[in-house]
Each structure stands twice: as C-alpha cells, then as structure tokens.
Specification:
The protein has 204 residues and is α/β, with parallel strands linked by helices. It is built from 5 helices and 5 strands. Helix content is 34%, strand content 18%. It is elongated.
C-alpha cells in the first residue's frame, strides 16, 4: 500500500542530498519493519512514467529481503510496467542467503534459518521475473564490496539504451571503377547545439 512507502528524496540531481538520504536511512526505520518491495516498485514505476525530464528511464532497486507486504504477487508489479519496456528495473538483492547455515546447532535457530532460505529463494525468483519482464536484470550480491562494480555495470547497461541503429541508402558503386568509398555524416543535437560525425568506409 502507499502507506508502506516513504519517499525520502524527490527527483533531484543533487548528489549530496541523495548521499545524505541514503546514509541516514537507518534512522528512519521502524522497529519490526517489513519489506514492501512490490509496493515500492509500483510507486517507482508510476512516478517514473510521469517524469518527463529524461528520455532514458530506469529503476534500480536495492533490497535485503523478499517482499512480505501486500501485494504479494509479482504480477501486480508487472501489470504496471509500460508495454514498451522502456523502464527497465535493475534488482540488486543484497545478503539474501539461499544456502542454509550448517553451523547452527540450536533447533529453533536452524528452523528460522531454513524458513528464511526458502523465503529468499522464492523472493529472488519473483525479483528475477519482474526484472526480466521490464527488460532489466537481477543481481545477487553476497558482499557489499561488490556494490560499486554492480552499479557501474548497471550504469553501462542504462547508457547502452541511448544507442541506436541508423540505416541509410547509398548509391551503387559504378562498374569497372574505383568507386568504392563512401562518406556518411550524421548530425545530432549535443549540449544545446548541433554537432556532426563523419565516417568514411569502403563498400564491399
């Protein structure tokens, strides 16, 4: 539900503000807090859809637990995704153990650990389904030291969305001549102005 979600920082390019918000998140947690991942994703998708600032859009979700707040079904998230798949969701699952801790000896602790492993496996599968339905990816991180490289990888994936293919028609080569060189110039907007790039190549 919307009441399960807190928006700590609105759209901003102020990295200092965002860093402060992330670094102080623990002070805003409620005792016994649950993981409303699906509700958070639905909110993020809705807000990202109407944000007209950027042509390239994506959502990055970092979670340390499987969703345990209504809606429980991942289809509730998928149904809010745009059909164009232009809002990929990159899911980062941090510390979601999927292997039982065999060092535990207390029966109660072993039972709790076993249930947690089952919940995490189920949660990871749902995260994967959501990520793939959106055109994004799921990352399972067992060590927080890998976060930087993971974010760098996501950044690269998002930037690749900005690339496109340009198709063009050129005149046929003249027979029995050295007419095999072509120049292609592409003009495009850049930093408030226009720029161009010319490519020269030989035809087959």
């Amino acid at each position: 539900a919307a009441s399960d979600i807190n928006i700590d920082a609105d759209w901003t390019s102020d990295k200092t503000k965002l860093t402060t918000s992330v670094n102080t998140y623990d002070k805003r947690l409620n005792v016994g807090s649950k993981t409303a991942l699906h509700s958070a994703l639905i909110t993020a998708i809705s807000r990202t859809k109407i944000n007209s600032r950027n042509r390239i859009k994506a959502i990055v979700a970092l979670s340390d637990g499987a969703n345990n707040v209504e809606p429980l079904d991942e289809q509730a998230v998928i149904s809010t995704l745009p059909a164009s798949r232009n809002i990929p969701i990159f899911m980062i699952a941090l510390g979601m153990d999927t292997v039982a801790n065999n060092t535990l000896t207390d029966p109660t602790e072993k039972e709790i650990d076993s249930l947690l492993v089952v919940e995490n496996k189920r949660g990871l599968q749902k995260m994967k389904v959501i990520a793939e339905a959106s055109g994004g990816r799921l990352f399972l991180i067992t060590n927080s030291n890998a976060l930087d490289s993971t974010y760098a990888m996501i950044n690269r994936d998002i930037r690749e969305e900005e690339c496109c293919s340009i198709y063009y028609k050129v005149d046929s080569c003249q027979k029995n001549s050295a007419d095999t060189v072509r120049n292609i110039t592409v003009y495009y907007p850049y930093k408030g102005g226009n720029t161009a790039k010319t490519t020269t190549y030989k035809t087959t």
